[in-house]
Design a protein that fits this description.
Blueprint (H helix, E strand, L loop, with lengths): L2 H7 L3 H9 L1 H9 L6 E2 H8 L3 H13 L3 E6 L2 E6 L2 H16 L3 H4 L8 H4 L2 E3 L2 E3 L1 H12 L3 E4 L2 E4 L1 H9 L4 H5 L7 E4 L6 E4 H13 L3 E3 L6 E3 L1 H12 L4
Antiparallel strand pairs: 1-3, 2-3, 4-5, 6-7, 8-9, 10-11
Helix pairs in contact: 3-4, 4-5
């Protein structure tokens, strides 16, 4: 089978693989996994390359559809193009850890910074140990039903999310998946992703249960939030 035939069977896969293969480009993408838009200069420093090389990397990532460009005056900002692309990057990070040689994984717990393991962002939704436990609690309470990776809210779940201030109809109308499982990078178990996952994180911030920190992707659970989550997790049935 020639190269053209192989590419027809796997459209675009080799192209995406080539974009991710360069360590500098991979570092740029990973730094944007908190959902923020960052200037070219900052991404240049993160990648550890020259400005001209960084410009080429950013152009390739943008042309390849992995990054979106935002222009403000003379400044150029880059962000992950879509939530689905962010989820794919997170999944590939899991694959990279799982397939690493044994000698590189003997001390696996230290591979994930301790401050990131409990609560962090996964693009625009909650991730980490807390997120996995909360998702388990939602499933145990019957808030969600699962069909493969896709999720939907049950009538009980719709009422529960409404009490949190989440408008499910508005989330369904967004141009992205409504709700899905996302395999957690550190816990290797699913947490809640999609539009509903993003809305849930927003609700937690609105209620004062979770706060952003100065450290990229790291979230802080407030005392009020810890009480709320402890209460939720101690009562597994609605």
């Amino acid at each position: 089978m020639n190269d053209d035939s192989r590419s027809r069977h796997f459209p675009g896969l080799s192209r995406i693989g080539a974009l991710l293969a360069d360590p500098g480009r991979a570092a740029m993408l990973w730094s944007l996994m908190d959902g923020a838009a960052r200037p070219a200069g900052e991404l240049t420093m993160i990648a550890g390359v020259s400005p001209s090389a960084a410009s080429g990397h950013l152009a390739r990532l943008t042309e390849g559809g992995l990054l979106a460009l935002e222009v403000s005056g003379r400044h150029r900002y880059y962000r992950i193009a879509t939530a689905d692309i962010a989820a794919a990057i997170e999944a590939l990070a899991n694959l990279a850890r799982a397939s690493a040689p044994q000698r590189a994984t003997e001390h696996r717990p230290s591979a994930v910074p301790l401050e990131m393991r409990y609560a962090r962002t996964c693009y625009d939704h909650l991730a980490g140990e807390l997120a996995v436990r909360l998702f388990d609690g939602m499933m145990a309470r019957g808030w969600l039903t699962a069909a493969s990776e896709a999720l939907d809210a049950t009538p009980d779940g719709a009422m529960a999310f409404a009490r949190l201030g989440i408008d499910l109809n508005a989330q369904r109308a967004r141009r992205r998946r409504f709700a899905c499982t996302c395999i957690d990078w550190s816990e290797r178990r699913p947490h809640l992703g999609g539009a509903l996952g993003a809305a849930y994180l927003d609700a937690c911030e609105t209620h004062g249960w979770i706060e952003r920190t100065a450290k990229r992707r790291v979230l802080r659970v407030t005392p009020a939030g810890q009480r709320h989550f402890d209460d939720f997790l101690s009562r597994r049935q609605a």
